[in-house]
Amino acid sequence: MSYPERPQYPQPRYHGDAGEVNASFRTADTPPELTSPSGDTYSYLATHESTGGEYGLYKVDLAAGAAGAKTHFHKAMSESFFVLAGELELFNGEKWVTGRTGDFLYVPVGGLHAFKNVTDEPMSMLMLFSPGAPREEFFERVAEMSQRGGEELKEFRVRHDSFFEEDFEEDFQAGAGAATR
Fold it and tell me: From the centroid of its chain, how far is CA 155?
């Protein structure tokens, strides 16, 4: 493999002459920030706030049979899934694939995707959003908002850059969503 003499990196964003002491460390035994009624847990490893909006990284542990998220897409961010343990059904926009320990799925901006745990065992994954977005409210309130349903749920999802197929069923069926697929 050959490498370019001058690889193209992004423009510098740090302009100091010496590095800074500014790293953050989180121990593995830090309790999750959120535990849902179904037993799913969310650990906020790197949030929009802590990374200055560069990315958001979350460790998500789904209980056996967890519903996950139905088919949707994002207009402002990509989403990636890395399976740490167990199995996860992932919809890649075309078909369902089984993600196992070590498997990775990258979903570009606008890419249809979904996920669910259809096994009798819990599973664990990393979810990465880029650029970062304030996803914590979405995780913390989605169950409550799903109970309410209707326009209130749709507005909540759209406010959090989550465009669910079921919210725009007529658009998808008519092909109006084709440009965003």
Answer: 19
